[in-house]
């Protein structure tokens, strides 16, 4: 199996802005180099270009819109995300839901632009539907656990297992991530043992006094 993937979503947390964002990116770079794990970051859009050019870690957008270049004021153009140096993008995060048609269009645009795609889902049925669109990853996250500090790995391992099976049944080439309350190496190990290739997380790292220590613990059992 390839190196496990830990994707840290800074969301719009105050602690994920400005110098704090760069402190987290620098910590991710150090821990990734030490551990061999792949640790990516999804910062505010305004940080995509500086981070992708300053840190040797995958930088992801938190969202793209299903648009092409033109008159789309205030939208996030996939081409702009690519030219900013992003490696990939989240699509349909529970805090930025899209229609099924838009998810499909975003995955197609990202594929054309060689942007990796992480389509976020909320149960095994939507995980199967997302897999049919051929993203690089499906990230299963029960919305009620997001930001709760209660780990999906411990509170609801069944949803992870069902989503892994549902995705594999549709397209075994699609990798599965899981997220919601992920906070320790034990959470990550459970997720990987259940068939995922890693985790999508936010608050346990972004709100930590010592993000580097949390990141080191997250990959400690891999
Ligand atoms: O994008 C990250 C997920 O929404 C999980 O967030 P969380 O780790 O704060 O629960």
Features:
single chain; 222 residues; alpha/beta; TIM Barrel; 8-stranded parallel sheet; 10 helices; 8 strands; 41% helix; globular; binds glyceraldehyde-3-phosphate; isomerase; gluconeogenesis; cytoplasm; triose-phosphate isomerase activity
Residue ranges: pLDDT <50 for 5 or more in a row?
Answer: none
State the name of the first-level CATH class: Alpha Beta
Q: What general outline do the C-alpha atoms trace?
A: globular
Give me the strand/helix succession: EHEHEHEHEHEHHEHEHH
Structural class category: alpha/beta
For the biggest β-sheet, the strand order reads: 2-1-8-7-6-5-4-3
Describe this structure in words.
There is one protein chain. The chain has 222 residues and is α/β, with parallel strands linked by helices. It has a single domain (5-218), classed as TIM Barrel, CATH 3.20.20. It has 10 helices and 8 strands. It has helices at 18-35, 48-54, 78-83, 100-112, 124-131, 152-155, 157-170, 185-193, 203-206, 211-218, and strands spanning 5-9, 38-42, 60-61, 88-91, 116-121, 137-140, 175-179, 198-201. The protein has an 8-stranded parallel β-sheet. Helix 1 (18-35) runs parallel beside helix 10 and helix 5 (124-131) runs parallel beside helix 7. It is globular and about 45 Å long. The model has no long low-confidence stretch (mean pLDDT 97). The structure holds glyceraldehyde-3-phosphate (G3H).
Lay out the secondary structure.
Blueprint lengths: L4 E5 L8 H18 L2 E5 L5 H7 L5 E2 L16 H6 L4 E4 L8 H13 L3 E6 L2 H8 L5 E4 L11 H4 L1 H14 L4 E5 L5 H9 L4 E4 L1 H4 L4 H8 L4
Parallel strand pairs: 1-2, 1-8, 3-4, 4-5, 5-6, 6-7, 7-8
Helix pairs in contact: 1-10, 5-7
The structure holds glyceraldehyde-3-phosphate (G3H).
The site of glyceraldehyde-3-phosphate has 13 residues, from strand 8 and helix 9.
């Amino acid at each position: 199996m390839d190196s496990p993937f830990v994707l840290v979503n800074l969301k719009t947390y105050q602690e994920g802005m400005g110098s704090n964002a760069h402190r987290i990116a620098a910590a991710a770079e150090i821990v990734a180099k030490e551990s061999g794990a792949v640790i990516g970051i999804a910062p505010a859009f305004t940080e995509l270009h500086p981070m992708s050019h300053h840190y040797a870690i995958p930088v992801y957008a938190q969202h793209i819109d299903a648009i092409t270049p033109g008159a789309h004021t205030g939208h996030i153009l996939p081409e702009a995300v690519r030219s900013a140096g992003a490696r990939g993008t989240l699509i349909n995060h529970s805090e930025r839901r899209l229609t099924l048609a838009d998810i499909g269009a975003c995955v197609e645009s990202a594929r054309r632009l060689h942007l990796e795609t992480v389509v976020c889902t909320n149960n095994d049925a939507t995980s199967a539907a997302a897999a049919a669109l051929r993203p690089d990853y499906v990230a299963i996250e029960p919305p009620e656990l997001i930001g709760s500090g209660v780990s999906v790995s411990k509170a609801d391992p069944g949803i992870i297992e069902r989503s892994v099976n549902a995705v594999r049944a549709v397209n075994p080439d699609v990798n599965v991530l899981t997220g919601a309350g992920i906070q320790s190496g034990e959470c990550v190990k459970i997720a990987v043992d259940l068939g995922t290739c890693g985790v999508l997380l936010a608050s346990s790292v972004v709100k930590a006094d010592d993000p580097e220590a949390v990141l080191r613990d997250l990959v400690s059992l891999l």
